[in-house]
Amino acid sequence: MSLHSFNFALISTQQQQQQQEQPPKPKPVVLKPISNIATFAFGGLAGMGATCFVQPFDVVKNRLQVSGAGGNSFNALASILKTEGIAGIYSGLSAGLLRQATYTTTRLGVYNSISERMVAQHNGAALPFVYKLGVGMFAGGVGSMVGVPAEIALIRMSTDGRLPVEKRRGYKNAFDAIARISREEGVLTLWRGATPTVIRACVLNATQLASYSQAKEMLQTYMSMRDGIPLHTGASLISGLLSTIVSMPIDIAKTRLQNMHDKEYSGVLDVWRKTVRKEGVLALWRGFTPYYLRLGPHTVVTFILLEQLNKLYRSVF
């Protein structure tokens, strides 16, 4: 045997020994799929539960965004409590719950059902981040079109208290708001601002859902966090912060378009142009604190409730 052949055989033997010594890689865990009905129902229930906690921040955020003037979030909250009482900071709650029952049910249901099946097709392997972005964007767009009427009712009901008494719309609840808007302004008004709503939903969901999944994987990998409430909370806070920064300018445009009495704005770009010219660039992030205090906890509570409902379903069924 030549020296070259001997060295080749020795290297091959060493490689075989190293392969035998290395423990086999664990197979990815494939979670039991959840039925489509349960997936959609859990998404809606989680969103509605979270809304009950964060509605006051949504009211403050909406009023700051339509005011056209600077203001402190905590001063705004104190002013609402002083003039309207506890009911004031929960104005529009019925619309908020209806929005979650339509928008969040659809977006989380679509996202989870698609992503779970894609993971199952890949034998439990984690989806690439770009796939998560795509699925999140699609889910957000579909959900937003379903939820626009409830969104308009929510914006109007939560900002009604800042108007002079003679100009208040005085909707009794979300269904009364939708019925009156249809009767007094036409059915198509229920989809006013649909363009920025869909854009915001696509951007928000692509960021929120994809970053939540990605943050959860990274926290498990690099910080050795086990699946549980601390992991879900950490991933949700990261997701909420990123989503707030990215989506606020679009949310400002959506809120002002949906709340306008007359034809003050012609579209999203017109809102941005007039806002920046009159109020400065930072006005596009006006209400950042209540927006994050609303979106951050809402994200946390929604995902924690959703994870617990999924866990309960898998343990029972």
From TrEMBL:
Gene Ontology CC annotations of this record: membrane
Keyword Transmembrane in annotation: yes
Gene Ontology MF terms: antiporter activity
Coiled coil regions, renumbered to chain: none
Membrane topology: Multi-pass membrane protein
Catalysis: reaction(s): oxaloacetate(in) + 2-oxoglutarate(out) = oxaloacetate(out) + 2-oxoglutarate(in); maleate(in) + 2-oxoglutarate(out) = maleate(out) + 2-oxoglutarate(in); succinate(in) + 2-oxoglutarate(out) = succinate(out) + 2-oxoglutarate(in); malonate(in) + 2-oxoglutarate(out) = malonate(out) + 2-oxoglutarate(in)
Record's keyword terms, sorted: Antiport, Lipid transport, Membrane, Repeat, Transmembrane, Transmembrane helix, Transport
Primary residence: membrane
Pfam families according to UniProt: Mito_carr
Solcar repeats (start-end): 34-117, 127-218, 227-312
Compartment list: Membrane
InterPro entries linked to this entry: MCP (IPR002067), MCP_dom_sf (IPR023395), MCP_transmembrane (IPR018108), Mito_Metabolite_Transporter (IPR050391)
Record-level GO BP terms: lipid transport
Family: Belongs to the mitochondrial carrier (TC 2.A.29) family.
Protein name: Mitochondrial 2-oxoglutarate/malate carrier protein
Lineage of the organism: Eukaryota, Filasterea, Capsaspora
